Amino acid sequence: MNATVRQLATKALLPAGAAIAISWSIFYANLLGATVTATWTYDYEPEPACSSTQTTNCIDHFEVKDITNQQDITLIKKVNNPEHPVGKVDHISAVFKYGPPFGLRTISVIAVARGPKGNRVCSNPFAARATVAIRPGTQMSVLF
After folding, report:
1. What does pLDDT average to in each consecutive run of 10 residues of the chain (144 residues)?
2. Between 2.60.420, 2.60.40, 3.30.70, 3.40.50, what CATH number should domain 32-143 receive?
3. Contact by Cβ (8 Å): 46, 123
4. Residue ranges per structural domain of the chain
5. Whole-number pLDDT of residue 108
6. How far apart are CA 4 and CA 9, in angstroms?
7. In the chain, which residue ranges form alpha helices assigned H by DSSP?
8. What is the spatial distance between Cα 66 and Cα 130, in angstroms, rounded to a whole number?
9. 116 prior amide bond cis, ω within 30
């Protein structure tokens, strides 16, 4: 009798475990997410990129964020400076999977700098933003 109960429990737990694994993959691994290419321009003239010789008052990296819900801003991707940036640099880009959540989302790119004491200083998230429709499995481009 115990063997039968154990067999039934095993048969019930395997599909339940598979369903949980599939659900996790869909929602957290972005299997259904849109493939987004974000592209922007940045002028390094006022503040150069950080380097081994310039560690303060410099641009450290960029961050692509979902700012749709301002009480719950979500970091989507951290993007390093391009190689040897000087002056105005066009076509800085990042490719990432996004979604869920789906629907209209406001995506922003911010510059993250190191201040005079090496502290983190961020640009205005509303300066470079776009509202886009994120749909499952689509490919899209966003130009800031």
Report:
1. 61 60 50 93 97 96 97 96 96 95 96 97 96 95 94
2. 2.60.40
3. no
4. 1-31, 32-143
5. 98
6. 9
7. 2-28
8. 10
9. no
